[in-house]
Specification:
heterodimer, A: alpha/beta, Nucleotidyltransferase, domain 5, 4-stranded mixed beta sheet, B: 423 residues, alpha/beta, Rossmann fold, 4-stranded parallel beta sheet, 19 helices, 11% strand
Amino acid sequence: MTTAGIDIGSRTIKFVIFEDSKIAYYCITDTTVEPLLKVKEILNGKKFNCIIATGYGRYLTQEIYKCPVITEIKAYAIGAHFLFPDCRTIIDIGGQDTKIIKLKNGSVIDFEMNDRCAAGTGKFLEIMAQTLGMKIEEFGSVALQGKNSVPINSMCTVFAESEVVSLIARGEDKKNIALSLHYSIINRLMAMLGRIEPEDAIVFAGGVAKNPCMVELLKKNLGKLLIPNEPQIIGALGAAIIAQRGDQDEKS
Amino acid sequence: MNNYEKMWQELGLDVALHNEVLAYINKGFQNTVGKQKNRPKTMEYFDNVLHESHGGRVAELLEEKSKGKKIVGFFCIYVPEEIVMALDLVPIALCGGTNFSVPHAEKTLPRDICPLVKSTLGLAFSKTCPYAPIKSLAVGETTCDAKKKVWDILSQKVNFHVMEVPQKKEIIDAHLWDDEVHTFVEKLEKLAEKKLDAGILRENIEIMNNKRKALQHVAKLRIKEPTPISGLDALVVMQAALNDEPVRFTKHVEELCAELDDRIKKGVSPFSNKVKKIMVSGCPSVMGNWKVHSLIESSGGAIVVDETCTGVKYFKDLVDTEVDDIEGLLGAVADRYLKLNCSCFTPNNDRMDMAKNLAKEGNVKGVVQYVLQYCHSYNIEAIRIEGALKQANIPSMKIVTDYSEEDTGQLRTRIEAFLETLA
């Protein structure tokens, strides 16, 4: 059976086709302000028996395609368990939220998720990179060149931004500021991890797992870290895998 | 509604803005309560209580007032309603549950305080609370810091009385509360220009006890199979309880119970059999606020217990009437109200036991701890509640949110994921 999973996130849409127990196709597209139009484009001409939607746009997609939906928390658990059968903890930092998922035999047993505030998420990194005049793709590698981190105390994106502006005005090295911003996310993340008591093996997924500085700092704190080749598509993969089971109790 | 515009104008309300408030609240109601299917028919009455809360009920209170009965507003279920009633005064809850008025409060108050306080004050500040101009006294209490300081501000403008709710449950605290109840009586006697009579107090205790018994009956029926009523509808009943005339309200609750009984016998439920039973614990959801209940029940949960002030706390204990004189009755009233287990108490061990027992009795799969943003005491106490529930192998999840709609996407994901994890 050929199944598909689509994960409509706040920044990107991820799409996976699953066939013969492996990923047959995948793509990642910007969500833009017209997610449904994007979904239409992605699905155009694709062949599959059934599809499950996940991510923030799941209900929007369901309205049009009448497909079942699951939360991205469940989808990430299934996807990560498929790629790494030993996985017990998932750290997923996406565009607008950070999730820590604890699992046992591929089932979610506990999770933590940030509140509405975007601090500590991909969006935070994006805004801070912008403030420092850098591209998001280079932000992590520049930060890795930083020597000293300076404390950035604000947890709020807006306040952190003004702290960054004053650091720039003080003549602080941009590399150091970049490093400090990464540290501020890690500190927040470690507090969240403390609430859930992570167990090995830990998988780091979501768009922010592409950032080398985040990976480096997390490894420093947690030791070994498993990172999928394409960390953004784990949710879409999970949805496609659940679609294989066909008999699920997803909300349809 | 237009029939009421003259009344609102005479009360000095900003009629145009008030119409906007009503439209906003009504839209919220239609999008949550109104969207439900297979509701009990007797819910129509309670829906109407909410719809008439700024209209018919205000007209009714004005009628009472013209007969010499004064109106006493309160903000918390620690204020003993039977004493107010026994002095021929009319108690009415003044808590705001709408996000509409929050910005109006933020013109004066700090933004980082609880939405309930901001919503309430915002309605008063923007001249959209019809009760503000008709009340002769407002009664505050000391269950949270934000409220305490707001009372200081309000009491400069309106006739205000503050009851000190103690923060511990030692003997000395019981004495303090007993004194507070007596001081409250004195204050009300002056307002009513009459003395509290033991016989009349006893009658009014009975009225309130009957109301509580009827609500206890609803709570018992909610946990039966199949669940005969949604948690959202049960919440509407509780919100009506804080606004309606008690004798009439009780009669309608009894009618609701008869219908629920019948639904259980016939196997009628608003939920599918796949639904997961949930207890909501923590902060109250007052009129205008249907957010979290609606999110839970549209995500595959059925709320069968509310361990909140708009839930069991309001009706779980009766006032003992097996006492002789007025002192005995007032002592019994004080005793009853001291058992509410607000998170302002330290330590609050009774609440841990209560939450655990309610979750067990309700046979719930999980508990959602509902914390209004900036309510520090419920937010921090959630840690101990979680621990107590864990001992009984009951999973729980805490959500912290205000009245705004912006975070419903994230909340839905979290609630759905929590429900997915419940076996």
